[in-house]
Amino acid sequence: MEVLEWIQELFANYGYSVLFFGLLLEFVALPFPGETTMAFAGFLSYTGRLDFTLLVLIAFLGTTVGMTITYFIGLKAGLPFIQRYGKWFLFSETKLEKTQRWFEKYGSVLISIGYFIPGVRHFTGYFAGIIGLPFRKFALYAYSGALFWVVLFLGIGRVFGPQWMGVFHIFELYAIWIISGIAGLVVLILMYRYRKGIAAFLLRRRAKLKLETKIKETSKGR
């Protein structure tokens, strides 16, 4: 509740700018309760005190600017700099190793899903730069993930109104499972929507493999 009162006071004093600078600083790896702030901001839009569309725009800009800054720090400074000075940004060796393991497991997709993984989302931008991921690829994953992340948490406050805190805590506990379920559902919907095209592609692929096998067998026979 103390955190919530602090966030409420920030909004009362500084308005929309709290969301932009707060999220930007969070992705530079400074402590700021970004998800709680967005959910509360969504609630303020539910009460009519703030505009939801403007909140989405500002939160998206704060997140993407912060992520982009960390990407270029990682790209230009490299791993030795992060290892030496990262402690000033709460970037410990343990967190670096954790992010590296997640990258090895999920690849570039981690940049999108990492927003929902505590202790990882703050460092994916740095690590994407460190490994030299092309900026276009980084931006595709980072910016699309940012849009989904901010709309989701602002939406919790906007849709559920006075009950936003209960829903927020449930989502906070099971975020990765909820997102996995949503992603799985989207894949199933897309597969059903484009089932004819997928079936035609598989048939062409099967015919091509049969032809290649036949050519190989003919070549061996000679």
Which tags fit this structure?
10 helices, mainly alpha, globular, 222 residues
Write structural notes for this entry.
With 222 residues, the protein is mainly alpha-helical. Helices cover 81% and strands 0% of the residues. It contains ten helices and no strands. Helix 1 crosses helix 3, helix 2 (17-27) packs parallel to helix 4 (52-85) and helix 3 (34-46) packs across helix 8. It is globular and about 80 Å long. The model has no long low-confidence stretch (mean pLDDT 80).
Structural class: mainly alpha
Beta-strand fraction estimate: under 5%
Spatial separation of the terminal alpha carbons: 81 Å
SSE run: HHHHHHHHHH
Number of helices: 10
Uncertain segments: none
Number of strands: 0
The level of helicity is over 70%
Radius of gyration, whole Å: 22 Å
What general outline do the C-alpha atoms trace?
globular
Describe the main β-sheet briefly.
Answer: none
Q: Please, what is the average pLDDT? A: 80
